[in-house]
Amino acid sequence: MSNRKPYQLVSREWKKENTEFTVNGVTIGRDLLMIAGPCAVENREQITTISEYLSKLNVKFLRGGAYKPRTSPYSFQGLKTEGLQLMREAADKFGLGVVSEILSIDKISELEEYADILQVGTRNMQNYPLLKALGKSKRPILLKRGMSSTIEEWLLAAEYIVSSGNEKVILCERGIRTFENATRNTLDIAAIPLVKSLSHLPIILDPSQGTGIRDLVAPVSSAAIAAGADGLIIEVHNQPNEALSDGDQSLYLDQLKDLLPTLKQIAHIREKRFDFESNAYQYSTQ
Amino acid sequence: MSNRKPYQLVSREWKKENTEFTVNGVTIGRDLLMIAGPCAVENREQITTISEYLSKLNVKFLRGGAYKPRTSPYSFQGLKTEGLQLMREAADKFGLGVVSEILSIDKISELEEYADILQVGTRNMQNYPLLKALGKSKRPILLKRGMSSTIEEWLLAAEYIVSSGNEKVILCERGIRTFENATRNTLDIAAIPLVKSLSHLPIILDPSQGTGIRDLVAPVSSAAIAAGADGLIIEVHNQPNEALSDGDQSLYLDQLKDLLPTLKQIAHIREKRFDFESNAYQYSTQ
Amino acid sequence: MSNRKPYQLVSREWKKENTEFTVNGVTIGRDLLMIAGPCAVENREQITTISEYLSKLNVKFLRGGAYKPRTSPYSFQGLKTEGLQLMREAADKFGLGVVSEILSIDKISELEEYADILQVGTRNMQNYPLLKALGKSKRPILLKRGMSSTIEEWLLAAEYIVSSGNEKVILCERGIRTFENATRNTLDIAAIPLVKSLSHLPIILDPSQGTGIRDLVAPVSSAAIAAGADGLIIEVHNQPNEALSDGDQSLYLDQLKDLLPTLKQIAHIREKRFDFESNAYQYSTQ
Amino acid sequence: MSNRKPYQLVSREWKKENTEFTVNGVTIGRDLLMIAGPCAVENREQITTISEYLSKLNVKFLRGGAYKPRTSPYSFQGLKTEGLQLMREAADKFGLGVVSEILSIDKISELEEYADILQVGTRNMQNYPLLKALGKSKRPILLKRGMSSTIEEWLLAAEYIVSSGNEKVILCERGIRTFENATRNTLDIAAIPLVKSLSHLPIILDPSQGTGIRDLVAPVSSAAIAAGADGLIIEVHNQPNEALSDGDQSLYLDQLKDLLPTLKQIAHIREKRFDFESNAYQYSTQ
Q1: CA distance linking residue B185 with residue B210, whole number of Å
Q2: Does A185 reach chain B within 8 Å, measured CB to CB?
Q3: Which of A97, C73, C138, D111 has the smallest number of Cβ neighbours within 10 A?
């Protein structure tokens, strides 16, 4: 851990205490942030079914892609504005916050209208004009790590947003690209505590993109919280086998439910408030 | 080499013969395309000195960054419009074509005004809204490989541009990210013949970004042409040790001159017309 | 997860239940296996001090290198036979099992004499003559993952040992080599549950080699057990700053003590018996 | 290129002029070293047919595996002593030198009896006891780069051999492991000139292992010589489609013949004597 760091505003040296901010009743950076939902919004029934289920589990945030950055121009590119509208409608009905991806500057105002948190995907982590523009937004930014970005480059990407005026940045480890292809990416678990030591920003983990394999989501989610992560973003689908994208890595709804008790126990050890369970668990801030 | 390819318009199956198009007198895809210039335009004297030197070597294309995608928000971000103006002025004076990087959709028309070829950098290879917008441009697009992109993802990025209407795409291998840090990136030399077999698009190589070490530029440039590359894009500077960026990998002007005779010999073997020498070398198309 | 697997004897298809075997009172594969000790045995005082401390924590296994595979021929190569003797002496005094690395076939009988578990290091994971010879040993083999080996290659290396006659193989994830150099290696946390699903062999994790940073050892150890690991191998030293090798990643003895209560809590959740604490925790086999 | 290098005897600082030594009439380090042959010796007819063909092309070295390090214990492991005998017999009949792989210390004397050059494969590059033992051999050692080894680690492996007494080391770049799986490995072409600047040892390239694709062998071989390589080791087979191993990357015999004229032209530019052609090309040492 070098002493000369090229980033400033996001560093622990700049600010000792954790950055915390509250969205939809969850104090991100202190409580455990649970985000779940489908890879892409597909239709009203899908997104409503999933939202209702999440609300019953007391998961407070719905994820869903409306503008999808697909590797092939011939793949499903998302429902766009309609997708955002369907997601907002379902989220409002069940009291959820909305997280969705922003691909270009010209869509920022639309995303701000429909979403509570704007996600920058792995392919745009070094899209600097976009990062600067998001520095002018009032919405928190979920900044995924570039699939081949070093931790330093990632923190510098966050520095672009913060130095442009927006301090509400949530980092998200989503796996890096390596020679190993048994999993879709290689989750860098050590990045969780390392980033916590280098920066005051909250950091969560994406076990779905990170592994690409449904059965690995539960153990890896446990590991992330044990390592000190501030939350998780998990892909779930009411019918994974019929999903238009990423079905293999999406949990069945019941699998999400089954996952929560263990996560709760580990979060308890880490003194993270577990917002999606009964309010009995009210830990003092660590 | 799998039989089922997810790209179509850029594939050899779609079009057997090489894509060729002429810019500033050079028939790209047939002649050897030589592009040289500084990492960033810094001032009139710098860009004029370099341009004059290139014209004497008969190198027909000037590269130079005006909008620079820098890892840190605190690094020099380029002269922007002024940089483009200075570059166009110098290029016009010495009969050069201009290659410069495009970072966002809102700058496309400006870049089209000042540059002959628009470069998409490694960080934007999967910026799909930008690629689609460039598909509407009349200018050729120099598409650098993402630093952690597979060849398939790279060809799919080209497919985004071509399927949006612009067939003039030049691929550029610039090294991938690996564990080896003796060089800045690891140049994937096999990508040259592999891409030539998979696609009809021209492909060039960037030995400067690819190695990050000045003394490796000459031998790696020779290797690229020997492997069948359609050209090179090389960083040169009149005062590398005072360059605002990438000085360590920039050739001195005299080093560029010294490099050319060997390249000419290898290009001759590969039956590539060597446009930057006397017009005595007029090979028939291979 | 492909259906056609090239390995057989180590696969879950071949044997459904976990492989378990008892060494020094610990049932590996069922209990939590805790191994700790210095990178290299340096002298009697060092190894005795560490051994005594481990015994007080009820950690049952002492690690220590006597034959060290060093990248440079000019680095400390280990105390060899003398190191093994010192380690055995200290271990016997405090009731510990010994784990040490084997580098070549001609040293197997010596290692068998002094050590309870023979470790194959990352550089020898594909040293097939050595693996075959270890298949004839009565000692359990701790098989570290090659630093650039896929999970499939790793399981095939285990298959070499098992198919040669030795079923007592413990796999050890120790990080893979990637572009990220903020940590010494990138720990592949998903490998833990993935290997548990593919194979019946026990798997542990090395947070010291895996991160190379002392402060990351505790959170990463917690993550490993949360992910389902069967144990940990941790570098500790009585004077890390004066260690002859790997001091930066070695825990102070007190740090090891401080780490254990959290590990105990997470092991409890995973129903792993915690042998190094009071015998109060006697879980039924999962 | 750091100034403080951990290796000494293999460095250019230690010895300015190229290391050169003559085997079977070829002065390695000055002439172009061409080695060709099958992945594995399979039977007398195969190795005799190939040897005769090589002798007609004036290729002076036959490669062939007798002890094969296979990823699976169930794959063909080589003909062992019989394979060495068949290879020596065929080589002697047609005036060829023999290159074959050494896997363990106890086979060194056997290999020395049958082979002129002993090859250390990629999996054994950090098998230090083996390297030290080979430092006592009179035979030159062909040291392949570890598939995930840095250039520094590779030169340190060579330092193990040289510091143990054997100065005749030939380095061989054979591709490193990266995320790209369109090719078997990623050939690090910049390693050729970089190693030439760092070390006085000869360096050759393996385009067959390096790419894993037959059609890429010719262009990549040209690139290697253009980059300054001292030679090539190429897999050829009289019946690639029936080869017991590595058939997909083995050239047909006629493809080897067709490859040579272009290599000769590029070697001429690089002032490497082309030993496998007529003796007309006698360049002075560079």
Answers
A1: 5
A2: no
A3: C138
Distance (Å, whole) CA D194 – CA D151: 9
Where residue D5 falls among pLDDT bands split at 50, 70, 90? confident
What is the per-residue pLDDT across A47-92, written as a single tens digit (0 to 9) for each? 999 999 999 999 999 999 999 999 999 999 999 999 999 999 999 9
CB contact under 8 A, A176 and C176: no
- B203 CB near a chain D CB, below 8 Å? no
CA dihedral B123, B126, B131, B133 (to 10 degrees): -90
Rg (CA), chain B: 17
Residue type, B271: E
Torsion D4-D17-D191-B62 (CA) sign: positive
What single-letter amino acid sits at A204? Answer: I
Contacts of D4 (CB under 8 A, 6+ apart): none
Are C226 and A228 a contacting pair at CB < 8 A? no
Residue C113: Cβ within 10 Å count? 11
End-to-end CA distance of chain C: 24
For C42-65, the pLDDT digits (tens) are 999 999 999 999 999 999 999 999
Q: What is the pLDDT of residues D70-104, one digit of tens each?
A: 999 999 999 999 999 999 999 999 999 999 999 99
| Nearest CB to C126 within list D7, D123, D156 | D123
Q: Is B169 within 8 Å of B158 (Cβ atoms)? A: yes
3-state SS assignment for residue A63: strand
| Whether the Cβ atoms of residue C216 and residue A228 lie closer than 8 Å to each other | no
Hey, which chains touch B, using 3+ CB pairs under 8 Å? A, C, D
Helices (H), D240-280: 253-269
Question: Contact, D64 vs D83, CB < 8 A?
Answer: yes
Residue B75 contacts C where some CB pair is shorter than 8 Å: no
State whether residue A285 sits within 8 Å of chain D by CB.
Answer: no
Q: Given a contact as 3+ CB pairs under 8 Å, which chains touch A?
A: B, C, D
